[in-house]
Amino acid sequence: MTTPNSQHANSRRRRPGWALGVGILGVVTLLLGIPSAEAAGKVVTFHAADGRTLSGVLTEADQRPAPAVVLVPMLGRPKDDWQAVGQRLADANITALAIDLPGAVLPEDPKDAVRWSEDIRAAIAYLVSRPSDVKAGSIGVAGASLGGSLAVIEAAGDPGVRSIALVSPSLDYRGVRIEAPMRAYGARPALLIASARDPYAARSTRELAQGAAGPRDIRWSDVAAHGTVLLTRDPDLVRSLVEWFQGTLG
After folding, report:
1. What pLDDT is attached to residue 250?
2. Structural contact between residues 99 and 120, judged by C-beta atoms closer than 8 angstroms
3. How far apart are CA 215 and CA 75, in angstroms?
4. Which domains does the chain possess?
5. What is the pLDDT of residues 83-127, one digit of tens each?
């Protein structure tokens, strides 16, 4: 990314006190708990089936009820990775709810890891419980890497999920396999996003698209990155993801 020379020139012309004033304002804002103008969304809480209290960042569309998308991160990465995407979705009048994975380390037993998808179910239930804000029958899920695997697993058993998007998918993520869940997902549409320079994600993308019962759109990138990092480094993919949910959630 390049910055126009005029911006550099404007920056040089600013008085030193300007930067100091901005810095002080930022500190005061932080101390008083005033949301930054750059901060997107608000923190909400809801409960998992086992009683755990979960939190998410909800970025709401202006015109409601609106379609909604649950955003699921990579292993070891926070829901904050989705902040920019959540805002882009909201700007397109799609509410976004970004959640964390239950842990930063994958359980040794893949069956325990598969149960992590229950947090996505709880997030969907939270959205469904807000009929004045969320349009009925218009919920999607987007997940990155392991988050994508969990998105498929949850969507396969929930006919209320209308559309999914998988960023850097894995057929087998340390024992968490998604071939069967994708078949169970059936004819509903799925967007598959991967870097052509990410060998396993690229192979998984091709195999998941072959012989599918429903639409499987693929978006390739030449950027060597994985998961939400890929979205950060290739902004065109974010636009594709937003347009995908605009087209499939209605």
Report:
1. 83
2. yes
3. 27
4. 1-39 (no CATH), 40-249 (3.40.50.1820)
5. 999 999 999 999 999 999 999 999 999 999 999 999 999 999 999
